[in-house]
User: Which sequence fits this backbone?
């Protein structure tokens, strides 16, 4: 429990830290400091008034959308900076940013606390995040271009509920110029947001699991990242307590480094035998206390 | 090899970041990030 309390504090601190320029919430403007070209390892819309960094999903789409025009005018920018950033974070820690740092992940976890019947998300539906990433982040921005060669940021435009929640709503509320331009697209994005909010009440982190490009990309690194979950097969009895404790419905004892795992470490706390741990660099998780005999099943 | 793979990936990623910075991609990200994204907020 102490670990989960720590995680909640880290999530809150990260949400505040990534959106630290709070005065803009009164002005209806966005932060424009020079550090904003730095990518954040989380989904955090850079049009949020207080955002101090760049959302890598938005930045990557912009490179894809501008690639053909850029090549036509001999500007050679392929998005290596963003792709390298995602690879560096992913290869070090996999999906840890999803579980410990992402403000939209925190929002989803808090909304899920609203009392209601809870629904599991079918495993097959979790693969849609790969389709959405391939289509909306890479293929459509790159392939569907105007006469000048410019594409659009399809994921931001049609899907991302985070942009609506932390950028669209506050900016349109605070800025009359923006409010005057709202039309069909805003209604569409509000509908997507409401849909996901309702789903968040019923299911844990539905956006992360079915639609988030960052979750899809970082998840691919879970099996090969420096940080990885470990199972002591000598002591694991496959009792299934870890799977029951996992908020993302992962069979932890068989797939400890599943691409769905956000490294929240609830499974580590749930294992009375101390069979689940993690390793990072050469450090390993401290062994769990020896279980009482009646729990050692 | 299993132990080395993440570090190989990390090294390749850092190399990509450096190439991207050399190509001026930081400035491109900054340029977009300091402008209100109309697509993001539902106007585009």
Assistant:
């Amino acid at each position: 429990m102490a670990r989960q309390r720590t995680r909640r504090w880290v999530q809150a601190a990260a949400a505040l830290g990534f959106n630290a320029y709070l005065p803009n919430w009164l002005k209806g403007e966005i932060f424009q400091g020079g550090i904003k070209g730095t990518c954040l390892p989380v989904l955090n819309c850079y049009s949020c008034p207080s955002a101090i960094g760049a959302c890598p999903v938005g930045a990557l789409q912009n490179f894809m959308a501008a690639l053909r025009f850029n090549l036509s005018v001999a500007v050679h920018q392929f998005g290596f900076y963003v792709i390298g950033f995602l690879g560096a974070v992913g290869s070090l820690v996999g999906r840890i940013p999803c579980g410990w740092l992402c403000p939209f992940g925190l929002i989803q976890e808090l909304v899920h606390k609203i009392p209601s019947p809870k629904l599991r998300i079918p495993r097959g539906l979790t693969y849609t995040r790969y389709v959405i990433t391939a289509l909306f982040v890479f293929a459509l921005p790159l392939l569907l271009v105007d006469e000048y060669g410019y594409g659009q940021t399809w994921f931001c435009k049609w899907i991302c509920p985070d942009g609506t929640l932390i950028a669209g709503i506050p900016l349109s509320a605070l800025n009359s110029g923006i409010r005057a331009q709202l039309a069909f697209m805003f209604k569409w994005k509000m509908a997507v947001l409401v849909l996901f909010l309702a789903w968040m009440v019923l299911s844990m982190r539905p956006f992360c699991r079915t639609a988030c490009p960052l979750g899809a990309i970082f998840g691919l690194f879970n099996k090969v990242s420096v940080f990885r979950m470990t199972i002591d097969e000598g002591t694991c009895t496959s009792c299934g307590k870890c799977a029951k404790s996992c908020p993302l419905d992962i069979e932890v004892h068989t797939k400890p480094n599943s691409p769905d795992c956000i490294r929240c470490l609830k499974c580590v706390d749930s294992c009375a035998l101390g069979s689940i741990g993690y390793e990072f660099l050469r450090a390993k998780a401290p062994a769990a206390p020896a279980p009482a005999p009646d729990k050692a099943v | 090899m299993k132990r080395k793979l993440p570090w190989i990936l990390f090294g390749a990623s850092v190399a990509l970041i450096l190439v991207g910075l050399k190509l001026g991609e930081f400035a491109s990200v900054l340029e977009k990030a300091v402008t209100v994204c109309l697509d993001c907020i539902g106007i585009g």
Q: What stands out?
A: Chain B touches chain A through 35 residues (CB under 8 Å). Residues 7 and 18 of chain B are 16 Å apart (CA to CA). Helices of chain B lie at 5-22, 25-33, 38-41. Chain B has three helices and no strands.
